[in-house]
Amino acid sequence: MENHVLVIFPHPDDEAFGVAGTILSHTRAGTPVTYVCLTLGEMGRNMGRPIIANRETLPEIRKLELTEACRLLGVEDLRRFGMRDKTVEFADQEALQSRLFDVIEEVNPSLVITFYPGYAVHPDHDATGAAVVQAVKRLPEGERPKIHAIAFAQGCEDVLGEPDIVHDVSDFADQKMKVIEAHASQTSGVIDTMKKQFLEEDETVRDRMIVERFWTFPL
Amino acid sequence: MKPIDPQLVQEKLTELAGTSLYIHLETTNGAYASHKNQSFFSAGAFIRNVQLNFLQGKITGKGPYRIGLETELGWLYAEGLTEWETDEMNRVLLAGHDADGKLAIALELSEKPFPK
Ligand SMILES: [Zn+2]
Asked: Which of A124, B17, B51, B98 is the most exposed place for a label (fewest CB within 10 A)?
């Protein structure tokens, strides 16, 4: 059991697909979870189906979705970093690492969950993972929390090997679906199909809902 | 947003010519395009809060629409526009959505800066 879990992602909904079950397993066990979300996904392409947002209203809509997702996840400590979607890799990296380091020092997590730098497809994902690793490395060896990282780039297993952390989160699958659904501006186009495929025991969708995979990042 | 009525957009462009404006211009195919299809060449750009004062502007096409704004020293061009609105802050928001409703292009004009 963890003392405190710190989840760090760049976009609202990053916590929904590959991690929601794991987060729920911690919050339901009474472990406090802090979620640092760097941006509001301001530059997302999905505007809802039917379209409910425009480029300027999207951030406010996604902010509400994120709040609701956190409520469903039992995450009581959400920190929005106010950066802009797509710009994480271009922002002042020292400053970002320092902000992350401050949170790490403050909440003193035993586990940090983020993206695996270099293997997380979206440049914001890679930049977030890289900044988290640097922030954690500011702590002396022996005092560092472990990092469970998410990788999903094509061929990542050829380089990283099999994920060493595999969580069966089937107990939380229904609630996880609600978390995904809470990000309606991003998921309303796919949620009905997903639910149907899940009920019909479609293997890819079932696997995605009930198994969550991480690589322990070598520190 | 609603489907573009080129006549209404044209009226707006004519009204805004000669005013000092802030522009958001963006094209995107999504950060996952090359991940989903490795032969897909991903390209996109955005610029936010660049100041622009155009001499004359025109909307053309049968839908999706094109817009060209001529400035003293150059041009602004956007194609693939399908929807638009004027919001409560009097900003002119234009966008192009693909068949799945995903945004592919945005062109926005405002007399006040957009939030960073
Ligand atoms: Zn993301």
From this structure: B51
DSSP H or E run through B29:
none
- CB contact (8 A) between residue B103 and residue A45: yes
CB contact under 8 A, B102 and A47: yes
CATH domain B2-33+44-110 topology: Protein Yojf; Chain: A; (2.70.180)
B109 touches chain A (CB under 8 A): no
| Residue list, CB under 5 A from ion ligand 1 | A 11, 14
pLDDT band at B55 (very low <50, low <70, confident <90, very high): very high
| CATH code of residue A50 | 3.40.50.10320
Residue spans of beta strands (DSSP E) within A49-127: 77-83, 111-115
B7 alpha carbon to ligand 1 midpoint, in Å? 39
CA dihedral B54, B56, B61, B63 (to 10 degrees): 50
Report whether B23 contacts B47 (CB < 8 A): yes
**Parallel, antiparallel, or unpaired: how do β-strands A165-168 and A211-216 relate?**
antiparallel
Confidence of residue B38 (pLDDT cuts 50, 70, 90): confident
Chain segment A41-80, per-residue pLDDT in tens: 999 999 999 999 999 999 999 999 999 999 999 999 999 9
Nearest alpha carbon to residue A61 among A185, A205, A194, A195: A185
User: For chain A, which ranges sit under pLDDT 70?
Assistant: none
